[in-house]
Amino acid sequence: MTMGARVAFGELRADSLGPGLDDTSFDVVVIPASGTPLSATVELTEKWAARGWQRALSCPTCGRAARVLRVRRTRLVCGSCAPRATPHHTLKRTDYWRRGGGSLVDQIARLVGSRGRADQRLRDLVARLEALADERCREALAQAHAAIEAFGG
Amino acid sequence: MADARPAFSNAARIAKVERTLLLDDPDADADQCLLHQAVAHDAVLAERLGHVQLLLAERLVALVENPRAASTLARVLRELTSTRAATTRRVQELLLAAAALRSHRRLSGAGRRLAS
User: What is the DSSP code (8-state) at residue A152?
Assistant: First the structure.
């Protein structure tokens, strides 16, 4: 890294580079919101954007033109290399969604708003939710009581 | 624990919670009653899980010097905490759905009254 390295906070954006960047590459230090700052040499390239070619950053990982580069572990990556998880994606990876009946609750919430009165489908969903909740609680409580008894409860 | 099943047939407690929910919304229709039923069921489960969670945490604190016991208890406590968190979140989401439905019904009822 040279003395004239640029500093970017959070992520490196092509539109925040400003004028006076005539080289084909530049040094940058990216300081992410969490994690270790990363220094890298980023090449400039161009990307078609509706009315013409615009300056873009060449992704050090895949080589494609990107407007934004983010720090992922020890590398700079573009959105294609490491898609950002939306809150919806994050929710679907939680224990609540996978094992805790979250998907059933979601189905119930969508169903109750769409009709005038309870029908068999809603009753079935609620029954399935209660059965799932019972099953999981039974397992957790059985383990807990076994552990308490085993260690002198 | 010999058999955990009887512990789940706490119908009286579930019915009490359900009645309390209905006090807030005496005009609840069938959809809302079903939601209240599910909320009451999960709320009672969360109470039970919370009670056992406390017992387990007390054992863990008492046996923290014993690595084997502490590790086993911590693992079980983690699973129990995760189960309780999921149960509590279900209660929140179901109550939210019930509240949204109630607001929707009230708004549409008010609209009809204004129109007539």
Answer: T
For residue range A73-114, list pLDDT tens digits in order: 889 999 999 888 899 999 999 999 999 999 999 999 988 877
Q: What's the whole-model pTM score?
A: 0.71
Binary contact (A113, B90; C-beta < 8 A): no
How would residue A50 be classed by pLDDT, with cut points 50, 70 and 90?
Answer: confident
Token duo for residue B58: 């007390």
Question: CB-based contacts of B89: which residues, under 8 Å, 6+ apart?
Answer: A96, A100, A102
Q: Does A127 touch chain B (CB under 8 A)?
A: no
Q: Within 13 Å and on the Cβ side, how many CA atoms surround B4?
A: 18
ipTM confidence score: 0.83
Q: Which residues of chain A are within 8 Å of residue B101 when distances are taken between CB atoms?
A: 112-113
Q: Which helix (H) or strand (E) holds A56?
A: strand A53-58
C-beta atoms of B48 and A141 within 8 A: yes
